[in-house]
Design brief:
Length: about 150
């Protein structure tokens, strides 16, 4: 079984560390990528890390992950709350999906309360900042270990 986890990030997450540290923390996306790489190595997983501001490209990435990855960790940014195209790609995706958000959308504006990603995901990790990505890597590592037992 593939031990690859694709970590996909949506719009504006390339701006992390530049503004709103009180909401999103002070880590840059590069810092998060490095921390994910280190945790994945400890847990015997490979990762591929991507960010795009384009909804269509996010759909393309999910379709690619479906063919090549065991799991997808997805922070779809604001597309989380708007994108039926993402929902359709996720329900067709053969890899399991864990939704991650740095902030807790439920504790924010009402327009962030609904998630098209959550409806197609194994589960969601929200509100723990960059650590949420590491929790998701651990969740996949535990699941893949169980599956090969
Ligand atoms: O909390 C999260 O991870 C979000 O996915 C972040 C999205 C937001 O639309 C979601 O509701 C929750 C926004 C990402 C924008 O990140 C920025 C970071 C620094 C400066 C500007 C934007």
């Amino acid at each position: 079984m593939s031990k690859r986890i694709d970590i996909l990030n949506g719009p504006n997450l390339n701006l992390l560390g530049t503004r709103e540290p009180e909401v999103y923390g002070s880590d840059t996306l590069k810092d998060i990528e490095a921390a994910c790489g280190a945790r994945a190595k400890e847990r015997g997983l490979e990762i591929a890390f991507h960010q795009t501001n384009s909804e269509g490209e996010l759909v393309d990435l999910i379709q690619k992950s479906s063919k090549t990855a065991a799991g997808v960790i997805l922070n779809a940014g604001a597309y989380t709350h708007t994108s039926i195209a993402l929902y359709d790609a996720l329900i067709a995706c053969k890899a399991e999906v864990i939704e991650v958000h740095l902030s807790n959308p439920q504790a924010r504006e009402e327009f962030r309360h609904d998630s098209f990603v959550a409806k197609a995901a194994l589960g969601s990790i929200c509100g723990f900042g960059a650590k949420g990505y590491l929790f998701a890597i651990d969740a996949f590592a535990d699941r893949l270990k169980k599956a090969t037992k």
